[in-house]
Write the structure tokens for this entry.
Amino acid sequence: MNFRLVGIQEKCSGCRACQLACSEAHGQGFAPSQSRLFILKDDAAGIDRPVTCQFCIDAACVAACPTKALTQTKNGWLALDEATCIACGACIQACPHDALRFDPTLRLPLACDGCHGEPACVAACVTGALEIAR
């Protein structure tokens, strides 16, 4: 059963509560830079847009991984084997949605695992700018 996260730009206030919830859920404390999603801000246009993994069918990021460290579960979310990852960045470059980022501290890609079906980011979004589409 695949699902994806949907970011609704018109509802996003740019508060970044989703980023804090994500980083906390992944054991990184309240650190937006450790989040698996991010808010793209365009102050000139007054736009805040959530950028999330789309859990693509036949994900380009997964196909690009030379060590097969990045895989996609039967539910659609991503799984990263940190021991196998060589931090080459091929998955990041391959993502057509620019949703993957590299964490220079952990030296790993920040791949969204969908919190295994209960995304912390969606639960933390008070404006309803993040939804799960199944």
